[in-house]
């Protein structure tokens, strides 16, 4: 609450402490999808309509909440609000397909072929439809302009199958189609007051008290069982029955929930204090999380 660290660095720290990793595509670093509409000529910083509702899981944005809960109640053996997790190895490659080695990883996932162009990361229209894909974002979107550019000579098209080549990403009008300006704008947006006032709600869902249990059910935030780390007894049972390999495969395919960091509601940020600065965030001691006290 003391605003000693900026939003981006704080979220990166939470990713580290929750066990997420840039070396594991099944539990890759995540950041919130923030902008609701990328198709406007000018980004309206002051309008609430410009921003996603951070109090809801990504799959519940724009959806009928009663319908999601009814669907959950009708399930028998395994209850979940969304069968699609917000971060998977294919989602990471979706964003980073223009950057090696993720190009090759994408091909491995797709059986040595590129996915259909309509399902690739090509333009702002797809970012505006992220609630249909149920994807949160990755850190590189906020600092790596090269991921929006076809800097490597990847997939020049297939005339036989009438498939167009992968091109540069089509950026919103308010970025002047400049990847560097777009990255700078995203970084500014994640630090602005509208986001800062509500970011604690997203933290509650991803890292906090709404991550699991009764609070998660109320928040429409339950995923498939395979997305949650197994308990010690479950691991022992899997090992005895040789089911561990199958579980690891499911985890890789479906994605994995990180460690729960907070069991109470996260405090919101005091936006009236103007002293947030970038921090060195690679701590060895998780207790420093509490010392920050935001």
Radius of gyration: 20 Å
Structural class: mainly alpha
Largest sheet: none
Helical segment count: 12
How many strand units?
0
Helix content: 25-40%
Oligomer: single chain
CA-CA gap between termini: 4 Å
Question: For the residues shown, what is the average pLDDT?
Answer: 81
Query: How would the global form be characterised?
Result: globular
Taking pLDDT < 50 over at least 5 consecutive residues as the criterion, the unreliable ranges are 279-294
Give the strand content.
under 5%
H/E series, N to C? HHHHHHHHHHHH
Provide a quick synopsis of the model:
This protein is an all-alpha fold and 294 residues long. The chain has helices spanning 7-17, 65-74, 89-95, 102-109, 124-128, 130-133, 179-191, 193-206, 214-218, 232-240, 244-254, 288-292.
Describe the protein's topology.
Elements: H1 7-17, H2 65-74, H3 89-95, H4 102-109, H5 124-128, H6 130-133, H7 179-191, H8 193-206, H9 214-218, H10 232-240, H11 244-254, H12 288-292
Helix pairs in contact: 3-4
